[in-house]
Amino acid sequence: MKKIFGLIVLFFLVDVNAGNLCCSYPCQNNGVCLTKGFKDYECDCTRIDFYGKNCETLRSNLIDIPPPYDNDHSYITLGAHFNHSFYTRVLPPVPEECPTPMGVAGKEELPDINALVQKLFVREKFKPDPIGTSVLFSFMAQHFSHMFLKTDFKRGPQYQWGGHGIDMTNIYGKNKHDENLLRSFKDGKLKLQTINSEDWPVLTKDADVEMHYLGPVPAERKFALGHSFFGQTIKIVIEDYVQHLSNYNFKLMFKPDLLFGENFQYQARASVEFNHLYYWHPLMPDEFIIGDTNYTMRDILVNPGLVIKHGMTTFVDSLSKQSAGAVSVIRK
Ligand SMILES: *[C@@H]1O[C@H](CO)[C@@H](O)[C@H](O)[C@H]1NC(C)=O
Ligand SMILES: *[C@@H]1O[C@H](CO)[C@@H](O)[C@H](O)[C@H]1NC(C)=O
């Protein structure tokens, strides 16, 4: 009797574990897995380029965008599509009550977070970039990515306050009001000031825009962001920035007209996974050599005073001559 009971319990357990078939991610090509009753599943292939039981069959030549999830739900929601306060999630969440944290594969328990940080983030030795990317590039990367990765820290790390796109808000501010405060309304230029005969943005007190500087920065060094060569940004980004990041052997070109008239969905959303991956620690050198002075990372952090001290020309010139670190998936 005891034996039979044991067997029944065993069968029951096996059955529960096999219960949610979505745990094994049967839907391909970003199809959305839905449970159907207790023992079946269905793949929703809406808005993707495939159809079939597991969204495995090619339908057309659309370049599609993965269905967006938000951080608060384990299923797709209207909010994930339309509410811009969320970073979307591209990776489908692991369904509830799966045998392992990864669904059915992988270990029973997630690794210790501190061990992960040690393994993935802590640098052992600086590796110079093999294709000669300069340290200046990492400043460009930060400036550029501030357009679309704008975490709303008041609400939490899953929220953001931007428009999810390349919108030049890093130069012009987040709305028309701020933009007008930054503009000179003369010759299409932003407000500028001259320091040691170089063009600089005005200080925040003179443009009266709200800017958040991390750490203690004196008022006379709080610049209101803006510069005058914005027209080239996209071209520089595609042909230089993406080239450097990708390490492709072929040369990238910016030619948006190639896609005119094609079935291409332009609209995309900044996703939380992208934000997590978007750290350029490996680009940073152990020391920054500006002019003939050797600075540590701590000296450089939130310190526009150094740029004034050496002058923009020397600063840019020095950074463009120093090699950045190699970007890799492991950020050491
Ligand atoms: C968007 O989501 C946020 C956070 O959940 C919520 O506070 C806000 O009301 C939502 N906005 C709309 C228009 O639904
Ligand atoms: C900069 O300083 C560090 C630490 O003091 C030293 O290891 C490094 O060799 C110096 N680099 C140059 C170029 O002087």
Automatic annotation (TrEMBL):
Keywords from the UniProt entry: Dioxygenase, EGF-like domain, Endoplasmic reticulum, Fatty acid biosynthesis, Fatty acid metabolism, Heme, Iron, Lipid biosynthesis, Lipid metabolism, Metal-binding, Microsome, Oxidoreductase, Peroxidase, Prostaglandin biosynthesis, Prostaglandin metabolism, Signal
EC number from the UniProt entry: 1.14.99.1
Cofactor(s) recorded in Swiss-Prot or TrEMBL: heme b
InterPro entries attached to this UniProt entry: EGF, Haem_peroxidase_animal, Haem_peroxidase_sf, Haem_peroxidase_sf_animal, Oxylipin_biosynth_metab
GO MF annotation list: heme binding; metal ion binding; oxidoreductase activity, acting on single donors with incorporation of molecular oxygen, incorporation of two atoms of oxygen; peroxidase activity; prostaglandin-endoperoxide synthase activity
The EGF-like domain, residue ranges: 18-56
Binding site for heme b: 281
Keyword Heme: yes
PROSITE patterns (UniProt xref): EGF_3, PEROXIDASE_3
Signal sequence extent: 1-18
Location relative to the cell: Endoplasmic reticulum membrane; Microsome membrane
Main location: endoplasmic reticulum
Pathway: Lipid metabolism; prostaglandin biosynthesis
BP GO annotations: cyclooxygenase pathway; response to oxidative stress
Catalytic activity: (9Z,12Z)-octadecadienoate + AH2 + O2 = (9S)-hydroxy-(10E,12Z)-octadecadienoate + A + H2O; (9Z,12Z)-octadecadienoate + AH2 + O2 = (13S)-hydroxy-(9Z,11E)-octadecadienoate + A + H2O; (9Z,12Z)-octadecadienoate + AH2 + O2 = (9R)-hydroxy-(10E,12Z)-octadecadienoate + A + H2O; (9Z,12Z)-octadecadienoate + AH2 + O2 = (13R)-hydroxy-(9Z,11E)-octadecadienoate + A + H2O
Annotated Gene Ontology cellular component terms: endoplasmic reticulum membrane; neuron projection
PANTHER family per UniProt: PROSTAGLANDIN G/H SYNTHASE, PROSTAGLANDIN G_H SYNTHASE 2-LIKE
Family of this protein: Belongs to the prostaglandin G/H synthase family.
Subunit structure comment from the entry: Homodimer.
Name assigned to this protein: prostaglandin-endoperoxide synthase
Organism: Mytilus galloprovincialis
